[in-house]
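hiii so um. not sure if this is the right channel but i have a protein structure encoded as tokens and i wanna go backwards to a sequence. like what aa goes where. can anyone help
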């Protein structure tokens, strides 16, 4: 018999928790890397984009912008990387605030990479929720 395939939209896949799409955009210009991590929320219906400007591995600038879904759809370069829960997004946001202070004066490549990994949900085994 066929086993139903599990997709990102299957709520049982993440223990019944609501998940939200997370997008990423990375581009380099004039020696700087601009990395954007965005989450799409339903309430309110908007896109929250966290923008990191990195020069020589040092986080030079960090800010958050909010856009409507329509404005976001017009932006190039973003690709869906995962879905996450609001609790994981909160951990990401709090970690980001700590890193933004810590990385003003030193190279923080691995810290930024590890922070993004927080957004990826572990596939739950049935019965472990």
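sure thing!! here u go:
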């Amino acid at each position: 018999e066929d086993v139903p395939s599990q997709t990102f939209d299957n709520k049982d896949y993440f223990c019944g928790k609501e998940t939200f799409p997370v997008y990423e955009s990375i581009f380099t210009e004039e020696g700087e890397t601009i990395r954007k991590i965005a989450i799409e929320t339903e309430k309110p219906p908007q896109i929250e984009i966290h923008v990191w400007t990195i020069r020589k591995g040092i986080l030079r600038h960090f800010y958050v912008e909010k856009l409507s879904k329509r404005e976001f759809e017009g932006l190039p370069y973003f690709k869906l990387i995962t879905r996450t829960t609001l609790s994981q997004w909160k951990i990401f946001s709090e970690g980001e605030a700590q890193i933004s202070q810590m990385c003003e004066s030193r190279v923080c490549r691995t810290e930024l990479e590890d922070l993004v990994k927080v957004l990826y949900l572990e596939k739950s085994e049935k019965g472990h929720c």
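oh and The helical segments are 69-73, 86-102, 109-117.
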